[in-house]
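Private note to self, pasted from the team thread so I don't lose it. Backbone tokens:
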């Protein structure tokens, strides 16, 4: 396996506070879980980064799995303490996908877009394929503020075509999509600078929503929303997202539904 060069990361980091404390292990269960463990055991500052080369129990939403062959991907988590009302946590997912899509565009020239609510996708032969997933896990205080959040990002960098995960979601990697290997270090440095700038702006009260909505695919198109629990389905037109990242679904009968990101999967009709 090609190990991630943490020394080079520390030396080249261009951020002011994000990723200034780095934890690395070649293999872990899940970086989200490891970072939470670290933050319970020791005083870990906001902005701390946990990165690995391989996860044995990489997680998606709803206990789904995140699969990536050893040494091929960016698999990392960030500890954040925004101390804002919990509803604002949707901004963190928006910021993560904006930063990932922006870094992919600038490092590879690929036209990365965001698929609501938490995926970064690439167009391959006329179809959108997932290249990056985001898992946000927040801990709230009794009065509903965000005590701490762990923002997990999985980005398929140099996964060869034959090793792409073959699940329900069509996947790709930057290597497969661009035809050349991409430096995980350069990409991570780029993601972190973008994330930090977006986080600083958000902490200053500036919403990522306009930039995020701009990068969304499926807007203006008919979509089907499926609830994870009962499998209830709704079909309508995705007309936009509100300030908190909830999807606005326009139904045929003229009514508009607000769809919370936490509950659903989204498919083009
Ligand atoms: C996500 O969930 O997309 C969030 C994935 C977050 C992964 C990171 S890696 C670092 C950190 N530590 C963790 O343990 N997790 C985070 P969701 O929207 O539920 O999508 C999961 C679905 O994506 C799976 O059910 C598969 O169909 C598909 N999938 C799994 N691995 C994939 C991959 N490498 N590339 C593309 N799709 C994948």
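Design output:
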């Amino acid at each position: 396996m090609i190990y991630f060069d943490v020394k080079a990361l520390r030396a080249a980091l261009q951020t002011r506070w994000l990723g200034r404390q780095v934890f690395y292990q070649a293999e872990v269960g899940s970086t989200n879980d490891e970072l939470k463990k670290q933050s319970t055991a020791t005083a870990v500052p906001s902005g701390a980064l946990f990165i690995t080369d391989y996860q044995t129990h990489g997680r998606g939403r709803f206990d789904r799995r995140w699969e990536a062959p050893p040494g091929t991907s960016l698999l990392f988590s960030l500890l954040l303490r925004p101390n804002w009302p919990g509803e604002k946590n949707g901004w963190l997912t928006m910021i993560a996908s904006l930063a990932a899509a922006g870094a992919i565009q600038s490092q590879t020239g690929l036209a990365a877009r965001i698929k609501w609510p938490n995926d970064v996708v690439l167009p391959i032969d006329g179809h959108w394929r997932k290249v990056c997933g985001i898992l946000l896990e927040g801990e709230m205080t009794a009065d509903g503020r965000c005590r701490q959040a762990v923002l997990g990002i999985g980005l398929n960098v140099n996964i060869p075509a034959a090793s792409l995960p073959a699940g329900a979601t069509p996947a790709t990697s930057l290597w497969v999509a661009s035809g050349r290997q991409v430096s995980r270090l350069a990409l991570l440095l780029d993601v972190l600078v973008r994330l930090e700038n977006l986080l600083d702006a958000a902490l200053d009260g500036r919403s990522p929503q306009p930039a995020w909505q701009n990068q969304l695919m499926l807007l203006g198109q008919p979509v089907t929303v499926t609830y994870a629990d009962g499998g209830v389905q709704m079909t309508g037109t995705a007309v936009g997202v509100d300030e908190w990242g909830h999807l606005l679904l326009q139904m045929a009968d003229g009514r508009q539904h607000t769809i919370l990101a936490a509950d659903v999967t989204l498919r083009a009709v």
